[in-house]
Write a structure and sequence with these properties.
- By secondary structure, the protein is α/β, with parallel strands linked by helices.
- Helix content is about 25%, strand content about 35%.
- The strands form 3 sheets. A 6-stranded mixed beta sheet has the order 6-8-10-12-15-16, with helices on one face.
- Helix 2 links the parallel strand 4 and strand 5.
- The N and C termini lie far apart (about 55 Å).
- About 35% of the residues are buried.
């Protein structure tokens, strides 16, 4: 169904929104609002993933479109998936190789950034190929792995397991919880360029305390034992 510069189609995980590359973004944003305002009653509080196609988007533009969809329609956006199918394919293969052992066994993988107000919940482990922005959340019964910057709220071991962990390329969550242990970030500002440097870390419970370590073989050895250390070195 087409409305001006916006064409919306369903896909197996949610909606694909085709955007006209030749029109100003302000018009596309207005047309997106109008489209979902008209169609909003059909969604009935649906939880959907979005894919934007047709033109490149900045982070700010993508967020504005997500806000337009959620504000005008009864939709809960679980995540935004990268439209580049080749990149997604390569990322999926890389994650599958990384999960070939049992460390992230039985995980659900999501492609894209979780923006403010978005959330992802799973009864398995969670792998997020993107950032978890402030105001976004990830909740998993198992482990949580973020291939990006994590500044939102993270819960691993939601089913109560203290054996779970949470890790990210940049792990700076507003709040991180594993089973019954919680840590709250004391970060108050970003660096001058608005970004943090990559500093892979992992959080886990050891001797009743929630600890953070640099992400590497030694960290996995402490969590999983010497046999896993030898496998990761």
């Amino acid at each position: 169904m087409q409305h001006s510069s916006v064409l919306v189609k369903t896909n197996p995980c949610g909606l694909t929104i085709y955007l006209d590359a030749g029109l100003p973004f302000e018009q596309i944003l207005a047309d997106t609002r109008d489209h979902f305002r008209r169609a909003g009653r059909f969604f009935k509080n649906a939880r959907l993933a979005l894919i934007f196609k047709g033109r490149p988007l900045t982070v700010e533009e993508e967020k504005a479109l997500v806000d337009a969809v959620t504000e005008e329609a009864d939709i809960h956006v679980s995540c935004v998936i990268d439209e580049n199918e080749e990149n997604a394919k390569e990322s999926r293969e890389a994650v599958e190789r990384a999960m070939s052992k049992d460390i992230m066994h039985n995980a659900e993988v999501y492609f894209g950034t979780l923006h403010n107000g978005m959330s992802f919940e799973t009864e398995k482990s969670a792998v997020i190929l993107g950032d978890v922005d402030p105001g976004a959340s990830v909740t998993a019964a198992g482990n949580v792995l973020v291939i990006g910057t994590c500044m939102g709220t993270v819960t691993a071991g939601a089913a109560g397991s203290r054996e779970c962990f949470a890790a990210a390329l940049t792990l700076l969550p507003k709040q991180l919880r594993i089973a019954d242990r919680t840590a709250v970030s004391g970060i108050t500002k970003r660096t001058n360029n608005g970004e943090y440097s990559i500093n892979p870390r992992i959080a886990y419970i050891r001797e009743d305390h929630l600890l953070f370590l640099p992400l590497g073989a030694s960290a996995f050895a402490m969590i999983f034992g010497e046999e896993d250390r030898e496998d990761n070195e």
